[in-house]
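Form 7-S
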Amino acid sequence: MIRVAYGAPVPHGGGALNYLVDLVEHHDTTKVHAVVYLDDHIGDADSAIARLTRCGVDVRRGPMAAPMDQFLRAGWWERELRARGPFDVANLHQHIPGAGRAFLEGARRAGAGILVRTEQLPRFPPHERATWRPRPLALRFARSRLAAITDRRIVVSDAGRRALAARGEPEATISVIPPAFCEEAFASLPSRADAKSRLGIAGDAIVVGFLASLSEQKRPDLFLDAAERLVAEGLRAVFVIGGGGPWAAQIRARAATLKPHVIDIGPRNDAAAVLAAFDVFVLPSLWEGMPLTVLEAMRAGVAVVASDADGTGEVVRDGETGRLVAKGDGTALTTAIRDLLTDASTRRRLAAAGMAFVRGRFDAATLARRTEALYESMTRQPPSARR
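Output:
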């Protein structure tokens, strides 16, 4: 039995936390015993915590995400992990590079045999800009300290692997394990017309949707820009926006001015059922690891329009499995959406190709088996061979 302590210094529920929950839910419990630690101040995580609790996982909280936690809380984590351990593996699931340094340092001091970092976003532009602000500076320093103590790095895309290697981390210690969706959630989706009806939309309407964090990273404002332009052109479609996050207030205020053409459905914990209502899914991110919502939309049989952000282009192949546009290019985004709204044949072809591409390739059981195989191979190695 391999005992694993997972740390998740994520600020709120979302794709990064769902990756961890999907992994832990599907672990073979005859091989892995997991304890999951969340940050003290995590928000919008009730659904994720309930899923972990239902499958018998011990969920605990501790100080991980605040800038000074990285340097003042290693002793706290050492005591906690000694008390709950011993652990064979400590795996830090990062949403922001550098966050959670105290957790992994505490695990090292507590004698965890293998120190792993799973980097969901190995590139985080807001903290790479020239600044004297304490938070970015603290996390940059914490990132360098984490690199020095990590035995194994897991990234979710080839783009992530290249980003870590470019920072000087040993490429031989980087494994690519993409995120995954729960196949069971898509096994019995409602029909598209029924899914639209559940959102209060006519079954024959064409629906263009955004379902992600309302944040600088995901650029929901570009989605609303496109909606406003296309509505002004007279194109008949309903635009649906869902999610929560730091931009929620301003995005919701703007969406309200675009009623009835734009419908705000707020934060959701039923992504599969919502995606089933869409004809086109839009994600204009500025940076990504591998966006889970894109994989889920493709699995739901929805045509995808996304920006060419990091790992996104590894699954959305322009003209083959979806439409890919340049990051931050609102005109190109609007054009791609318009093309799919006015060409039902292409919309259906891309949706079918996207579903075929992801089906059976990004399921949560595969994610768990690949991660377990990595743990097993590392526990068989002598410590000197792990780096």
